[in-house]
Structure formats: structure tokens, C-alpha cells
Amino acid sequence: MMNRPERLTEGRPTQGRPTQTGEAARSEIDTFTGNRALALEEGLIFEIGRAEVTGVDLDEPAPFTDRLGGLARKAALGLPGLSEPEAMRHYVRLSQKNYSIDAGLYPLGSCTMKHNPRLNEALARLPGFADIHPLQPQSTVQGALELMEELARWLLALTGMEAIAMSPKAGAHGEACGMMAIKAAIAAKGEGATRKIVLVPDSAHGTNPASATRIGFEIRSVPARADGTVDAAEVRRRLGPDVAAIMLTNPNTCGLFEKDIVAIAEVVHEAGAYFYCDGANFNAIMGKARPGDLGVDAMHINLHKTFSTPHGGGGPGAGPVALSAQLAPFAPLPFLRRDDNGLRLIEQASEAPQSIGRMSAFHGQMGMFVRALAYMLSHGADGLRQASEDAVLSANYIRASLADLLSQPFGDKLCMHEALFDDAWLKPTGLTTLDFAKALIDEGYHPMTIYFPLVVHGAMLIEPTESESKASLDLFIATMRDLAFAALRGETERFLAAPFHAPRRRLDETGAARRPILKWTKPVAE
Amino acid sequence: MRYLPLTREDRVDMLARVGVADVEALFADIPADKRLAGDLDLPRRKSEMEVGRLLSNLAAKNVAAGSVPFFVGAGAYKHHVPASVDHLIQRSEFLTSYTPYQAEIAQGTLQYIFEFQTQVAALTAMDAANASMYDGSTAAAEAALMAHRVTGRSKAVLSGGLHPHYAEVVRAASLAGGEAVVSLPPDVFAREDLAATIDSETSCVLVQNPDVFGNLRDLSQLAAICKEKGALLVAVFTEAVSLGLVEPPGAMGADIVVGEGQSIGNALNFGGPYVGLFAAKEKYLRQMPGRLCGQTVDAEGRRSFVLTLSTREQHIRRDRATSNICTNSGLCALAFTIHLSLLGETGLRRLARINHANAVDLADRLAAVNGVEVLTKTFFNEFTIRIPADAAGVVERMAQRGVLGGVPISRLLPGQGLDDLILVASTEINTEADRGALADALQGAF
Amino acid sequence: MPTTFYTKEHEFIRVEDGSGMVGITDYAQGQLGDVVFVELPLIGRVVTQGAEAAVVESVKAASGINAPASGEVIEVNNALEETPAIVNEDPLDKGWFFKIRLRDATELDSLMDEDAYQDYVKSLE
């Protein structure tokens, strides 16, 4: 398969050889394998593996009489097996087709792609955390319960809230949990039949309306002012005996702090409703402001964003929910209580009659808890505040450095941890936000969040986080400026068919959706 | 601080570019009286060594499963995971990437999701599987909601053999959404008559196999009755390895299959992160929750993978999405698919036979202990025993003697008169000596 | 001789002999982009003017299709199930969604005729 030289040269080179690129400067030569040097094509495990191969050595058990009651599996599964070397090669090759925060700037707005310390990975893998069972006697897991208690203490100090529900497994799961607590609190006041409306700004993450609807609420939208923030007077106009809650993200998805937030919380509470805060953007305000002081009743914290448990290609995350004193009695099971015998998990409704019940089978994302606490301990109160300050400073640095070229939907003003641009500046070029994003891929960057928030046309939401050096920010800014100039000069070919240098060119998403192929099937022999 | 690259000088330069005097000016939109003046009352930064020491001390207070004879199951199982699995999932490109929305630079993630979906469909014998849920219990709750959408009905019937925590998760999610749930009483011997509970309001029946007491259940008849009455059969499993030996739910006629995938590739982790598996018949595809990865081609005609059918999801459909899920269990799904690729058909079947053989041997040993009765007649790697004493106390005493001997049923189902039952699991990690140690410990504990 | 009426949401209804054929306009399909899926109403369902009767999906959006007039659904375009691209290729003819038996022909008075709709589209550009 591989090209071999005509003759192998052994030992020291005895004659000069070309050391300049020469003809090699030509690119796009087709290879026999389809590989391009380090860019290796890779088949599916179903094409590489074989049913009789296994990469796990196990001895067949001694003969015995089964107790399957005639329910043994009849048909073959059709699963391929790989030896360990084949598996290593397969997954290493796949990994090389991915962009990652370890490899480069990942400025996805709203996603907080910050550095993932490896200490946290190592600690989460200690057998005392990774190799304990959620249902082994609580006397044998006191250290794990202490860790949960300590993490809760940090989260409560950072949020200024009354209680924290640890079991939700991601942001959206936390939203559902918080809204269930709000629903239960409303029902406890006898207003369950009337309070059905949840106010959500159009700029919200899609999870907000999805979570509230799932809990049986109806969504009513709240407009934003021309400056991108929500007006307390507009909120008041929509409040009434039928409104259960407002869901606000703060800082909001436009990267702006909701400056009316205290007034909003007041009018919401006056109207007998609750204030749910989407904490996805908490990275902007750690140690700078506490949601509890702002009047928030419930807020989830994405440990995988703010506290850097890795995103892992889409998960797992963790979404503990901080609750106000009014909502604390409705917290889900299980939760921790400290008594004379140490820490204990309250697991049964009989001990917590007002609880909304269980959010998931066990106590939450312990693996994420370890990582998040390690992250917090490493930073300390001073380091967390500094991280938020650096994140906000870096976003503003990018914003200020691009403000003369790109357009800002709400005018040239300070932002929090993410800088938002729209596509008004691209209009004369005929290019779209998508084209611009794909050209960034060729430059070695993961694109920013695009087309979100929905309220901004052709949105580009840039969140650098606190993890970038000034040199890294400067190179990103220079790249953005170079691309912007190219676009404005009309060099559209650099954009329209981009990316050129990624493992794949643009994909046929229409075809994928019209004729879904969601699993491999054995090709029919011709 | 070792994770923050900006120097004091950098910050000064950057503030100048932004055009503000100091960093506080950047936070001017936070009402002044709500802005924190100094640092919170929390410790200051710590070195890697100090943090390592603190958390290692906490870890050392726990009894790790691998350090003792260990028989705890009930929804999470200790299996051997090859060293290569954990190495591979820690590769930067898998660990530190985001959801694969920019497909051109995320083919690695997308291809393994496609392979994962294919494996899950094969394991469960279903048409299509999604890219994962949080865990088995939340997948079960989603399945009930999906069945409501498919059938236009809104009552879920939960088998008395369903893991009580799963039942509680389904109940909490359904009640919050205004849907009805009927839970059958605990069914230690798998004798309940589920078919009799299905009426014209019933959207689905959730039944677990092997059930929470360990019983294997033939779901074929129930599937036929569900079909006749217009309800969906949702089959649940908590031990994915069982599918290497036991007839899969798809072959028994299930409409939706959900389960816990932790057993394959993932550690116990004190309850999470785990990986929820979700599979369904193709005709229900558009009502499925969660991400789906599909095959397509790129502009050069090369096979490629991309997230697809996204109009079901919250970022597009918002309040009318099939689910609110966004973040899933990507990296746990990767661990699952790597471990299963290493096992293959041959390895998985053998692993499942070893589990079953060990459980059969353990059941025989425990049955020989004076006073112990093995209640579960057909099982995979877990079964229920009755002892002449309070199970919670016995399990606690065994733990003090260094044997983690199972889960007292009363911890899952308190106040139900089931205080003398213990759920015991045996996987490939248990040696003959371990099984002997449990029999001895049990003998000495009452 | 059929007459076609239009809504501000870019649905059309082509009326002949007391029944109407419903679809989306060329402008609408252009705005949507490649149609990948159409969810059609069940035959026999009674739809109400201005209320959602079908859903049309592109890769990145799902849009509700409102009934331009009230009535019972008497036929649906099953060809869209297999080939949703017809909506893009021939929206006004082969790419129709469903047909209804009109309940109240006076409802049509609230809709735009061909000329009014063309002016309306121009005003959007």
C-alpha cells in the first residue's frame, strides 16, 4: 500500500540531496490511500473489525447450567471486534480529525471553552472517587460525601444562595429541576391552577423554553431594549396572577449584564412570581457579584463551563442548582445532611415531604464534582475573581480591536465575557456569517458561535475565556482583521468554498436530513 | 495563578486598548451596591501539590470497590475496563472539544457517535439509537414523554420490577408535566399482571429486564398486548452486559429501549457521569429526544458524518422541542464504544457468560448458607436473597468486616416490608475467593 | 377556473369548486432553503383559518404552515414524504401540501389576491 523508495539508503548520507521544497510546493496531488501525510483516512469499526476478534482476553467459564429460563439471546449481535493495536490506531486517527481547546483558541460564545487542567482528571480517577458505588453503605463513602459538601459550600459562597441541589446532570437538567421547584412552590401556595406563564426573552438559550414547557408552563416572550437588555417596565407589563416565573440569562446571551436585574427581581417578586437565572454565563461574574444578592430564586451552574470539567465532545456535564430560601424546601432527592454520625444522604420522600422527587437515579455527577472542586481550590477566591476579570477583559480587548471593522448590534460599548457582532458589516460583500466562520477554520481556529442569539442577524458571538495569552489574542485579532479586509476587498473565493484545509470540506446537510442514515448497515454484495 | 496566562503588564496594555482606566470599569453595569468589594470568604489559591493532597485525603476515606470483595449492583456495576479505554478518552481532541456543531473539524467525534449509534442499535436489536442521554433513569423519563407524543395519550404504567429510583425519576418528570403515572407495587418474583393495567389512556408500559430484583422477563406477550391496545412497550435495562447473553428487547417486540450504559467502558464514579442509551423503532424517529448523527458526503464526495434531524432539538424547536436536553454524555459514550469495539461479538458474549457463571456459582454458595434463601430463579448477574435478619444491618456489619455484600432492598424500597432482602451482583471481577468471602461474611453477620 | 389567494405568512390556497389546495409560495421556499421534511395533517382533520396545519422543515428551521382557510382535510400530498425537494422545485403546483373542503368561503375575503401578494413581496425586499 505504501510507496517505497527504489533503494534504501543505509547509514550516513554520502551524497547531497535536495533540501529545498522545489516541486513539493505543488499541493493537491492525489494519493493512492486518500491519506495526506498525517491526515489519515479511517474506516468504520464495522469495516475494520471482525466478529471473531477480541481485544479483551477472557477465559471461557467452566461448563455450568444456565439460569436464563430459556431467554438466551438467539441471533448474533453483528458487533465487530478489534485487537488492542487496531483499536488504538482507529481512535487515535479519529481523534486527529477533531479541533480541541488543547490545540487552539476555541472562542465559542456561551460555551466557555477554557483550559481543562489535567490535575483534575488525575484526581477524578483516584479509586476513592472513581471506584465507589452510589449504593454502598454510606459509612464507606464519607470522604465522597465530604467532597460534595465542600463543593456545595463553595458554590453557595459564590452564588450567595441558600441551598444547592447537586443531582442535575447538565444545564438543561438543572433548568428543569429549578422550574420543578418553582412549580412546587406555586402549588404549595395554592396557585398551581392559575400561574402557568413563564416569561422568556427571545435571546434565551433554546433550553429555557424547552425546559419550562416540559414542566407544563407556557412561554411568553419578553422583548429587549435597543441596548440589548431587558427593561423592568416591560417585565412588569407582562406580569400578573397568571405568571409563574421569568427565566433570564445573566450576563445575557448578547454578552451584556442585565443592568435592571435588581428591579426586575423586585417586580417579579411583587407579582408573586419567581426568578430563574440561567447561569451559563457565570464565568463573567465569579467573585464580582452574587446572584443571591441580585434577587435570583434559582440558578443552575454549568460545572463543565465555568468550572472547567471538560466538555468531552458534548458531555458529560453537571448542572447543580442554587436555590433561594423560598425554594430550598422543594429541592430534589437525594441531598446531604450532617448529623452526629457524620454526613448522610437523605434519599426518601418520607424525610423531605415537599421535595420534587428524584432528578436522576443517583446523587449527581461525582466525576465532575471532583474536577470542579479541584478547579476551585486551585484558583481560590482570588484566582476565581481574577479569572472572571481576565475573561471579561479579553472579550473587551477583542471587541475593541475589531470594532472599527465589524458591526456591533447594540453599539460600541463594553461587554462582559463575550463580544457580539452581527452581519451588517458583511452585507456589501455578499458573504454570510457562515462563510466567514468557515474561513476561520482554514486559519486554524474553531469558529465563534454563529447565528445565536437568534435576535441578532447573522450573529457572531466570541468568548475567548481567561485561558488565552495576549499573544494568542493578538494573533486571533490579526486573523479576524485580515479576513475582514479580504471580505471587504471582495476576495470571496477565500470564503465561499471554505474550509479548504480541514479534514472535510462543507457537508451535504440537506441530504443527511432528507435521507437519514443513522447507523452502518452491511453493504449488499453486488 | 498557573492557569491564567495574562501578566500584569498585559492587563495594563489591554485596558488601554479597551479605553478604560481599570478593570472595575468593565463591571460598571453591575449595580454598585451589589458589586463585591473584596474577595469572598473562601481560601486563597493553592498549588497543584496542595490540591492533590487535600483531595487524596478525602478519597482515602472511602472504601474503593476494587479493594474489597464487592457485590454491589442495583443499577451500577463494577466491570473491568481495559487500560486503553481511559487512555484514549483522555486524548485532548476527544476530552477538550465541544459538541460537534462544526462538522468539518469534528469528524472524529461524529464518526464515533455514528459507530456508537450502530452498536447500541445492534445490542438492543432496534432500528435507531441516539447519541446518548445523561443516564438510564433520565432516558426512561424521556421514553415516557416520547410515548405520550407518539400515542397522544398521557399515562405511563411502571412495572413493579422497574428500579425504584428510575420509577421516581419518571414520576417526578411526568407529574411536573401534568402526566399520569401508575406504579405497580414491588414485584420481587416477577408475577405482576402488567397487561391488565393497560387501558385506553395508557401511552406506555415501562418494564425492566433483568428487573431490579434480578428476574429475567420474557416481554414478547406483553409487547403483543401493548400493540393490540395502542400503547408502546418501553423496555428498560440497567446492566448493558446482559445484552450479550439475554434475548434483546427489540427481538421481544419493544417499541422504545432505554438503559444504562455505565457497565461498558465506565467506572462506578459514585453515581455519575454515566451514559443513557436510547433506541427506538424507525417510525418513531422524529419523536426521539437527543442528538442524532447521520452519514452524508462532503463537497468532494467523501463519506462524512454530521448531526442531523436537529429540528427536533431545543436549539431550533425551542418550546416545541422533543426534549430540553443539550449536553449529553459524549465522553462516556466514547468510553462505551471503545470498550465494546475491543470486546466485539466474541468478547461481549464471553464476558456475559462469565458474569452469569459467577452469579450462578454465587447463588449456589449463598443458598448453602444456613438461613439464606435465593429468591430469584432466573437471572443474569444479580439476584435477591432473603436472610433471617435486618438486611441493612447485615450489609453494614459485612462492610465493617471488609466485604461490600450488596444492596439492602430496604434502601431502595423502605417501609414495604422487604427489610430482609439483599440484592447481590457478581461480575467478572469477583474471584472464587471473593465469593467465598461473601458467603462467610453473611454466615457471620446474623 | 381556479383562483389563488395568499396569506401574509406566504401560504397560498388555490380554490376551485368549494375546495382549496394549500401550499407555500415561491418566496417562502426561497426563504426556507432546502426543504428536508414536511409534516402533513391527517385526512379528516378539521383545520382552522390561521391555525397551524402542517410543519415544513429545513436543516436549521421548522416553520408552521397555517391553514389559509378553515375546512376538513380531504387529501394530502404523499409525494412530499419521499421527495420533500418538490417544495423547492415546484412550490405552487407539484409541491402542494394538502387539500381542504372549505367551510366558509367568505374567509377568503381576508386573504390577498395575486396582485396584492406580489406587491406585498416587493415591499419586503
Using brief descriptors, characterize the structure shown.
heterotrimer, A: 526 residues, alpha/beta, Aspartate Aminotransferase, domain 2, Aspartate Aminotransferase, domain 1, 7-stranded mixed β-sheet, 3-stranded antiparallel β-sheet, 12 strands, 32% helix, 9% strand, B: 446 residues, 2 domains, 13 helices
Task: Describe the 3D structure.
The complex is a heterotrimer of chains A (526), B (446) and C (125). Chain A is α/β, with parallel strands linked by helices. Chain A folds into two domains: 121-375, Aspartate Aminotransferase, domain 2 (3-Layer(aba) Sandwich); 380-502, Aspartate Aminotransferase, domain 1, CATH 3.90.1150. Chain A contains 15 helices and twelve strands. In chain A, the strands form three sheets. In chain A, strands 1-7-6-5-4-2-3 form a seven-stranded mixed beta sheet, with helices on both faces. In chain A, strands 10-12-11 form a three-stranded antiparallel beta sheet. In chain A, helix 5 packs parallel to helix 11. Mean pLDDT of chain A is 94; it is low at 1-14. Chain B has two domains: 68-81 and 344-445, Aspartate Aminotransferase, domain 1, CATH 3.90.1150.10; 83-339, Aspartate Aminotransferase, domain 2 (3-Layer(aba) Sandwich). Chain B has a seven-stranded mixed beta sheet with strand order 1-7-6-5-4-2-3, sandwiched between helices. Chain B has a four-stranded antiparallel beta sheet with strand order 10-11-13-12. A two-stranded antiparallel sheet of chain B has the order 8-9. In chain B, a hairpin with a 5-residue loop joins strand 8 (292-297) and strand 9. In chain B, helix 3 (83-89) packs antiparallel against helix 10 (330-367) and helix 6 crosses helix 7. The mean pLDDT of chain B is 97. Chain C has one domain (3-104, 112-117): OB fold (Dihydrolipoamide Acetyltransferase, E2P) (Beta Barrel), CATH 2.40.50. Chain C is 21% helix and 34% strand. Chain C has helices spanning 26-32, 79-82, 86-89, 114-124; strands spanning 3-6, 11-16, 19-24, 37-39, 46-47, 52-57, 62-66, 71-76, 98-102. Chain C is globular. At the A-B interface, helix 2, helix 3, helix 4, helix 5 and helix 6 of A face helix 1, helix 2, helix 3, helix 4 and helix 5 of B.
Write a short abstract of this structure.
The complex is a heterotrimer of chains A (526), B (446) and C (125). With 526 residues, chain A is of the alpha/beta class.
